[in-house]
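TA notes, week 10

Several of you asked for a full example with nothing omitted. So below is the full record: structure tokens for the whole chain, then the designed sequence directly under it. When grading your own attempts, check the secondary structure regions first.
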């Protein structure tokens, strides 16, 4: 991993981006890394566009601001590609991971993105098939760990089992585990 990895999440309120950012930070904690995870929204209502941020580092983190030049951008709601500049500030060699049934090349063309790496995963389909609801945060986390190598899918699964196991029935936990596995296997690079 680079000295510090900065991740910006784009979603709509209620889709679990803040929870996903915190789960990523919890994984970092479990491996002895330093982290920050925080949202950026006001008095938003469910469905409004929001951003969340996660910083991960092997060294103490001394910056305490929004992430303006992310290494990784995740887009949980594909409709945001049309209404929000999701690539704003993305580093030239950055990673864009979009929840979309479209091929990565189509997303790259739509956004007129020249550099970096573009990945897509149909997290909505995976979430509907496994969870029965359009909550894409755990599938997107599965795809994220696969494409960045920041953690293993097994570490993420363990985190989900520990975090969700205290709050939800075992069927819900296992559905999230299945969503992570399917997303890690189904992510496409373009």
């Amino acid at each position: 991993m680079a000295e510090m990895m900065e991740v910006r999440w784009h979603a709509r309120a209620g889709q679990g981006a803040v929870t996903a950012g915190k789960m990523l930070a919890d994984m970092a904690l479990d491996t002895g890394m330093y982290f920050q995870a925080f949202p950026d929204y006001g008095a938003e209502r469910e469905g409004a566009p929001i951003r969340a941020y996660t910083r991960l580092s092997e060294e103490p983190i001394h910056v305490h601001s929004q992430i303006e030049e992310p290494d990784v951008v995740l887009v949980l709601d594909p409709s945001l590609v049309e209404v929000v500049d999701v690539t704003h500030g993305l580093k030239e060699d950055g990673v864009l991971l979009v929840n979309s049934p479209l091929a990565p090349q189509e997303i790259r063309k739509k956004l007129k993105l020249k550099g970096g790496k573009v990945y897509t995963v149909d997290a909505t389909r995976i979430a509907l098939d496994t969870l029965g609801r359009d909550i894409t945060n755990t599938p997107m986390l599965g795809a994220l760990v696969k494409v960045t190598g920041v953690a293993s899918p097994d570490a993420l699964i363990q985190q989900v089992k520990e975090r969700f196991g205290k709050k939800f029935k075992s069927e819900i936990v296992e559905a999230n585990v299945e969503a992570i596995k399917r997303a890690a296997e189904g992510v496409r690079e373009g």
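The chain has a mean pLDDT of 92. Use that as a sanity check on your answer.
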